Amino acid sequence: xxxxxxxxxxxxxxxxxxxxxxxxxxxxxxxxxxxxxxxxxxxxxxxxxxxxxxxxxxxxxxxxxxxxxxxxxxxxxxxxxxxxxxxxxxxxxxxxxxxxxxxxxxxxxxxxxxxxxxxxxxxxxxxxxxxxxxxxxxxxxxxxxxxxxxxxxxxxxxxxxxxxxxxxxxxxxxxxxxxxxxxxxxxxxxxxxxxxxxxxxxxxxxxxxxxxxxxxxxxxxxxxxxxxxxxxxxxxxxxxxxxxxxxxxxxxxxxxxxxxxxxxxxxxxxxxxxxxxxx
Length: 279
Fold this sequence. Notes:
mainly alpha, Helicase, Ruva Protein, domain 3, two-stranded antiparallel ribbon, flat, Rbsml_uS13_C, ribosomal protein, ribonucleoprotein, Ribosomal_uS13-like_H2TH
């Protein structure tokens, strides 16, 4: 018999379903908790190790103050590998062991090569991720070269077309067309502070985007359960009741408020069909 936060979890039930007994823990949150503490989907409550039970209880007692899985994501949000039980600069010991994500082109080693250590597997994945990154850089450089060649070819064709058009013109018309083309090019090449025809042109700068606070990389950091969640719900209901909203009154009376058709047509007609509304 396992008790977590004073809640009795059935021994014969799967851990991912038994955790939903806790108020505020749904199926998605339960899956995240099982993944956090390396609990298998088919593991039952009676099969949990003492370390897993203690870790679950300590985490659920205060999710906000619990340390996130160190090394699960890098500063840019990408995966990175690290060695388990290795202390970082803050002296915090890593609990979980995270591996980098394999790319779509990853080819696993043949089975006849036998078992390999975790460190060799990490090194192999790191090399594969490094090669994929280098390949992406090469592809990006190739696309840039193709774009430059395309733009150069397009500009060359435009010049040839312009020269071909100018060869057909003579005298004053040729001078006018050349002046119009020069003015047209200068209009599109002007930048902030440049002068065209005696006037200083300015371009609109991009609006400054407000800096948003950095989001937590741990999806379980803002988990609210049991007493804290019940208190939050009570405060919300009290606020709705205080401002006199329809939802707050029904909450206070214990009546259903989750989207049912609770207002009759007579009540709506009484509110809408008034003389002062049409006078």
